[in-house]
Amino acid sequence: MLKNDIFERLTTLLDTHHACYRVMEHTTGGRSEEVAKIRGTHLGQGAKGLVCHIKGNAYRQYILAVLPADQQADLVTLAKQVGGTRASLASPKEVSELTRCVFGAIPPFSFHPHLKLVADPLLFERYNELAFNAGSLERSIILNTGDYCRIAKPELVAFRKMPD
């Protein structure tokens, strides 16, 4: 198993770009709702990262798709928006190789050349700060939303499930 240096990479990146953020150590939470309560943040402030494999139309790409934690991803829409026809969640092995993190601890930043970063625009519309696990289930970063957008530069792709 590779040493998890994601937290150090994140804080170095944020410090280099003079981001406004704070680090929070906490107990491991299970679901997003539990983690939001532990952090003292709104559920929608959580930046949930899903590692997806997009295929079809001669397109093959791993995507780190980020959306608010109170939303659900529409993987069919995601695939079509980026040029594929189908999408699936990556396996735990693929997630580990591409992010050096376990499920639930993936920050909304890509440090791997084969992992494209996209974010749903709603992530930037409701809250001044985003919260996310920082490479560990016991450590979070709460980051200014504008700083996240400026530093991570995700491609904006609307892929959340719309209410019926």
From TrEMBL:
Q: Where is the YbaK/aminoacyl-tRNA synthetase-associated domain?
A: 32-149
A Pfam family found in this protein is: tRNA_edit
Known Gene3D superfamilies for this protein? Answer: YbaK/aminoacyl-tRNA synthetase-associated domain
A molecular function GO annotation: aminoacyl-tRNA deacylase activity
Q: Which InterPro entries match?
A: PROXY, YbaK/aa-tRNA-synt-asso_dom_sf, YbaK/aa-tRNA-synth-assoc-dom
Name-wise, this protein is Prolyl-tRNA editing protein ProX
Q: What is the lineage of its organism?
A: Bacteria, Pseudomonadati, Pseudomonadota, Gammaproteobacteria, Enterobacterales
Record gene name:
proX
